[in-house]
Amino acid sequence: MLSTAPLAYAADDVTLQTIKVRADKPSSIDSVVLVENTQAQNRTLGGMLEHVSGVQSSAFGPNAGAPVIRSLSGSRVQILEDGQSILGMNALSGDINIPFDPLFARSVTVNKSSDSVRFGGNAIGGSVDVDSGLVSRKMESKEKDLEFVLRKGFNDANAQGLRMNFNDGKRFSTNLQMSFQKIGHYDIPGNSKAGVCNSQLFPLKGGVNTFLADSCQKEARVQQVYNKASQPFIDQFMKENPDWADGDFSFYTNQPTSVWQRKTYVNPANPAYVPGTPKTAQNKINKDVTPDYHGTLGNSHASNSHFAVGSTYFFDRGYVAVSLDTKNSEYGVPGFSMENKSFGANYDEGLPVGVVISQDKYALEAKLLDPVAYMESAQLRVSRLNNASGERLGAAKANDYQFDTNQAELLLAHRRAGPLSGLLGLSHKARDIAGSGTQLYLPDASTVSNALFVKESLDLDWATFDAGFRHEKVDHDIRKSGFKTSRNAKNVKLEDKSFSLNSYSLGASAKLGQLFGAKLRYAASERAPDVNELYASNRHYSIMTQEEGNQDLKAERARNTELTGLFANRGFQLSATGYVMKYENYLYLGHSGAQMANRLPLKYWKQTDTTVKGFEIDASQVIQLGGYGKLNLSAFADLVKNKADNPDKLRAHNDGAYLPNMPTNRYGANVLWENQGWKARLSSTWYDKQKYLGKSVSEEVPLDGYTMVNFQVSRALQVPNSPFAGLEVFISGTNLLDDDARPHNSPLKYIAPLPGRGFQIGLSAKL
C-alpha cells in the first residue's frame, strides 16, 4: 500500500505495456501519480491531468493549457518528455502551448511534491514527465505492431494517427509515430464575454473597475454630462452670442434676467426644466474593444501535427536508443487582441492573436548494467531541443523566439547495500534565446546550468526513508541584439547574473498496523529567477501587461512540509495529504498602479514572503460484480491558498494578499465499469466559486462555479478471419451540461469560456 501512489481515474488503460523501471524512479514517499493515456479528449497536457487532485490546467483558451500544481506553474513546474526538459517559451508566456501528442503519448508521471533535488530549481513546485512511447526500453512482445487511429469530433478536433513498431525480437526495435489534429472553431453555450463584463464594470461606490474592464477588453468610462433640465431659464445673451459659450451649461441660468456689457437681457423660461434635478448626470460608456461572440468562440481554430521515429539497439547489458521528434502547431488565442485600443479608437481595426510553434527534438538514451565495480547501472541522456514560438497579430509577425537547448545527464546507480540504494547524478543544460519582431519583450540571452545531485533510499520491512541533495549553478548571459528596454524599465543596463543553488529533501513512510500508513516529506529548495523575471521589458500582450524585470532579484527559496495519511481495506483506498510551502523571496508581478499604451497595466517583477498551503483527498472503492465485470468508484477534493505573509502597503493596495488567477477548490467523482472488452466511464467535477481574491488595483471579480461532466464508452472487438489483431471503437463526451465554464485560474476567464458540449467518436485498429 505504501509503495503505490494514489491513482488518478484516468489511469485505467490495461492495453498499455508496462515500462521497465529506470534508475531514476520517483520516490514512493513523494505525491506521485501515473496517468495513462486512454482515448479521452486530451486537447492539452494540462487538460489531460486536470482530474488529478491538486492539478489544474492554466486554460489559456482551449488550445493552450499547462499543468498548474498546487497553484504553481510556469518556471516552477518542470515539464519533461522521456526524462528531458521541454520547458521553453511555454514557461514564460501562457499563450504558448506545451507541444504534446494527445494520441500516442503513453503516460504522464506527475510529482506534486517539490522535485528540485532531481530536476533543479524549475521543479520547485513539482514535475511532469511525459512518456512519449517513442523509445523501447525493453524488447517488444510482438515482432510487428501497427495501429491506426481515426477520430471524428463534434465541437472537438478531428484526429488521425499511425503508430508502428517493428523489431527482430533480439537486438533492434524501431517505433514510428505520426498524428494530426484539426478544428475550425469551438462552440460555446452563450456569449464569449462573461456577464460580469457588463454587470460589474461600474461599482455601486462609483467609478470604473479598471482591472475588470481591461480583462474584458472593454472601453469603460464615466462621463459627467450637463443636465439641460436642471435650470429654469435660458440665457438670452448666450443664445444671441453662441461663440461666447464654453458648453451646454453656458446657455442656461437660474436668473430671470442677466446683465451683459451694461445691457439687461430678459431670459425666457426653459421648457425642459424639471425642478429639483441635479446639474450633471452620469453617462456610462461601455464598448467592446474586441468582439463579444455568441454561440461560437472566435479565433479558436487549431491545427497540430507530429512526426517521430525512435530506434533502440539492445545488447546483453543494456541498450542504446536514438530518436527524432518534430511537432508543429498553429492556433488562435480566442477572444483576445493585442490591440486593446485606447479610448475613442476604431475598434474594427483590432487584430486577433495567433500562435505558431515548431519544435524539433533529437535525443539519445543509453543504459549500461554493471558498468564498474559497486555500480548497478549507468544511464545517459543527451538531447537537442529547437523550439520556435511566435505570436501573430493578424497575418503580421508580432514576435518570434527561438529556444535552442542542449541537455546531458548521467545517472550512476550504486549496488544495493542491504536496505540501502541510491544514485549519483550529473546534469548540464545550455539554452540560447533569440528574438525577432516588432513586439519583443525579452533580450537575446544564454543560460547555462550545471548540477550534481545524490539520492539515497533506505527500505526496511516496516518503514522507508529517503534523502537527497543537489547543488546547482545557473548563469544568465546577455547577448548583443537590437533589444531596447522601455522608459519605465527598472533595469538601466542589462547585466549578466549568476546564482548558486542548494536543495535537499528528507522523507519517511511507515506502516501503522494492517490498515493504516503515513508519509512525511520535508524539502528545502531554491530557484534562480528566469530571464523574464530578470530582464523582461515592454508590452507582453499574452499576459495583458507591460512587463518589467528586475536584475537585482534574489533566488527564490521554499521550505515544504507534506504529510499524507493512508488507509486501505478490502478494495477501499483513502489518501489524504496536507502541505505547507513557506517561500522566501517569492517572485510575482506587482502592479505599479499605472497604465501604459493600449491600457496595459504597468507591472514589475517583485519578491515577498509567501505561504502556499492546502490539502488533497483521494478515495476509491473496487467492487467485483462477478459475471457483470468490475466497478471502480473514486472521488477527490482539493483546496489551495497562495497568500503573502506580510504584504507591504503597496502590495496590499495594488495586488492584495492573494494573487489573481489562483485555482479554486474542487470536488470530483468518477465511476468506471469494465467487463469483457467493454469500458464505460462517467465523471463529474465541481469547480467552486473563488473565495480568495487578488487585486490589480481593483479587486478581482469572482465568477460562478460550474460542473464539468464527461463520459466515455469503448468496446474492444476481435474480428475473426481479418487482418486486424484487434479493434476498439469509442464515443466520448465533454461538458455534457453545456455549462458556461470559466476556470478562475485562466487569464482569459472573462473573455473565453471553455468549449461547450462536445463529442468524439473514434476507431483504433491494430494489425
Walkthrough of the structure:
With 767 residues, the chain is mainly beta. It has seven helices and 41 strands. The strands form eight sheets. It has a 22-stranded antiparallel beta barrel. Residues 1-22 have low confidence and may be disordered.
Concise overview:
Residues 254-736 form the TonB-dependent receptor-like beta-barrel domain. The protein is mainly beta. 5% of the residues lie in helices and 53% in strands.
Backbone structural class: mainly beta
Count of alpha and pi helical runs: 7
Largest sheet report: 22 strands, antiparallel, barrel
| Cα-atom radius of gyration | 30 Å
Protein name: TonB-dependent receptor
Domain TonB-dependent receptor-like beta-barrel: 254-736
Membrane topology: Multi-pass membrane protein
Keywords: Cell outer membrane, Membrane, Receptor, TonB box, Transmembrane, Transmembrane beta strand, Transport
Question: What is the topological layout?
Answer:
Blueprint lengths: L31 E5 L8 H5 L5 E3 L9 E3 L8 E4 L2 E2 L21 E5 L4 H4 L7 E5 L12 E11 L3 E10 L4 E12 L2 E6 L4 H4 L10 H6 L2 E9 L6 E2 L1 H5 L11 E2 L3 E4 L2 E4 L13 E9 L5 E4 L4 E14 L2 E20 L14 E18 L5 E19 L2 E22 L2 E17 L8 E15 L3 E16 L18 E16 L3 E12 L3 H5 L3 E2 L4 E4 L7 E14 L2 E24 L5 E24 L5 E15 L4 H6 L11 E10 L2 E10 L7 E2 L1 E2 L6 E12 L8 E9 L23 E9 L1
Parallel strand pairs: 4-7, 30-33
Antiparallel strand pairs: 1-6, 2-3, 4-5, 6-7, 8-9, 8-41, 9-10, 10-19, 11-18, 12-17, 13-14, 15-16, 19-20, 20-21, 21-22, 22-23, 23-24, 24-25, 25-26, 26-27, 27-28, 28-31, 29-30, 31-32, 32-33, 33-34, 34-35, 35-36, 36-39, 37-38, 39-40, 40-41
